[in-house]
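Notes to self after the Tuesday call (sharing in case useful).
The group wants a holo model before anyone commits to mutagenesis around the pocket. I volunteered. Ligand is P-hydroxybenzoic acid. Logging inputs and output together so the record is complete.
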Amino acid sequence: MRTRVGIIGAGPAGLTLAHLLRLRGIDSVVLEARSREYVERRVRAGVLEHPTVELLREAGVAGRLDREGMPHHGLSLRFDGTDHRIALADLTGRSITVYGQQEVVKDLIAARLDAGEPIVFEVSDVRPHDAETDQPYITYVDADGAPQRLDCDVIAGCDGSHGVSHAAVPSTTHAHDYPFAWLGVLAKAPPSHSELIYTHHERGFALHSMRTPEITRLYLQVPPEERIEYWPDDRIWDELGLRLAADGFTLTTGPIMEKGITTMRSVVTEPMRYGRLFLAGDAAHIVPPTGAKGMNLAIHDVWVLAEALARYFGEGRSDLLDEYSDTCLRRVWRAQHFSWWMTSMLHQAPGADDFQRRLQLSQLRYTATSTAAATSLAENYVGLPYR
Ligand code: APR
Ligand code: PHB
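Result:
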């Protein structure tokens, strides 16, 4: 088999890239380790920045997003048991949309299959080869167990942080571990509030988010080595009740449909390229979820890559490809700093003393009351413009 761009991974990065390339008349093949059902059901984050929504609209894949996505014009910082609203739209003129990552994935898979373009699911033993030459190729084993070879001009490594692409790139990795994890739950319960609530509490951070008017998404800070077996549903609701307590607030409860623990890391790979292998999304960088940036960065990367590949294949010019890594990394480091800042301001670090807690509260109060500080949070949260 031969294609122009061999894409490893059918997450938001790989699928959006395939779609943007198709719009530019560039053929690609997407190779995915999991089944279609699996990737369409995997529960991940759900905040789309304003520029992400704009891009999906321009790319013609926002029909359901516009009908079912929930636009949010503000969010709450909750500390000392009181809400302090950050008026995202008033401060920036822009807003965010709550729409689950797997809904974006479903829409992109449907668009690709409707167009008759290939996604090869359930492949194994995927390996990129000869990235340092101008004839790279990928080998893999298909769902029937047959070995295959895909020759291409360029390989896009969009296979996330545990994929094979990251490991194939001899770049420098900058990493930072955080001493906490998030326990996330999806509950069949209407949201308790119309907006997201980021809560600072002495028992640990908590987040109230949502997916639909009937489904709430909630998170609790837990130690990084925590095991989900220690968290029966009753304990989760009790802890959420304690941390989210505020005057006039009632936590809506309901059956928990899904729960899991995610550790928190920051990782940046520099450069995001090795010869003709380009990394995008989680394969190149990971951010802690407190800034809600993971999927948004992935989509920005592939927007840059699609433009660069269009110039390369259309005009034979590689200048944008040569700038790809630097262009992406400027946004990645901004998001990395914002996510680290939100994380440090809101979580209880093990062994943190009263002095550190008072600094956090002072920063929260300043952010909530100074228009300059609130605007800084807001413009990072809704997403800085692409250009
Ligand atoms: N071969 C093929 N596919 C692979 C391999 C492999 N060896 N390893 C992993 N994959 C697939 C995964 O099954 C997954 O579907 O690559 C895909 C990677 O997708 P994501 O992990 O979602 O990464 P990305 O597309 O970069 O998305 C970035 O969106 O998914 C959210 O919150 C998540 O921050 C993340 C963001
Ligand atoms: C989510 O809804 O899953 C979500 C929202 C905001 C975050 C992280 C996750 O910062």
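Two things stood out.
The mean pLDDT is 97.
Residues 8-14, 31-34, 39, 44-45, 101, 123, 126, 158-160, 163-164, 281-283, 294-295, 298 surround adenosine-5-diphosphoribose (ligand 1) (CB under 6 Å).
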